[in-house]
Amino acid sequence: VIGACSVVTRDVPPRTINAGNPCRVLPPRA
Description:
single chain; mainly beta; two-stranded antiparallel ribbon; globular
């Protein structure tokens, strides 16, 4: 999942939540 208004600058791992500018992997939700 890519968050709204996120700037993806490299490959992201599968099945992760990514957000921010630049895009970063967020910790898994419980």
